[in-house]
Amino acid sequence: SQELEQSPQSLIVQEGKNLTINCTSSKTLYGLYWYKQKYGEGLIFLMMLQKGGEEKSHEKITAKLDEKKQQSSLHITASQPSHAGIYLCGAAAGNMLTFGGGTRLMVKP
Amino acid sequence: DTGVSQDPRHKITKRGQNVTFRCDPISEHNRLYWYRQTLGQGPEFLTYFQNEAQLEKSRLLSDRFSAERPKGSFSTLEIQRTEQGDSAMYLCASSRYLTLGTSGSITEQFFGPGTRLTVL
User: Fold this and answer.
1) Which of A57, B25, B41, B48 has the fewest CB atoms below 10 angstroms from its CB?
2) What strand order describes the sheet that includes B75-79?
């Protein structure tokens, strides 16, 4: 079965700083999803990556899938308190998604 | 359409009671998924439907769990004889499955707000 490992598990940054979250897969990624979750709430879709080397951006968040399709990174530029939450990567595994354990982000004003 | 909705948002029950959750997917989505998420973990797949057919079930879905999607629209997840270990967030998601020749592709899965179950 496919396993996803996210690092770091938690992160505290000062407002305005940049940060990167990594997601490493035990198998080739054929579809990699990034979601954000506020504590106790559902998942908000951020981006989906499918092709090796693909990069997508939305506002201040950029996600990349490496050429070998086994690792993805999520980069936030000039972090804001609104970026706080849990970031989850999910891999398309057959007809379902397999998720990493999440990265808990806190942004200090 | 405002997205995937779930009801109730919170449920507190005593051990041994039965509970039922409802999920209303995005209207044009033919696939509906159930996931379970425990504290500090990522969501784990339980089961999914394409239209009204339940096509896959995880081994996490014990015989106390049953899910239905009778008309290919909303879905219900029932847990019988609840146990304290069933306490979790139950998430529903929906997507579209597009048939492309002999293969297919799945669009993004959009999640509902979840139902938080606490079993006392």
Assistant:
1) A57
2) B5-7, B19-24, B75-79, B65-68
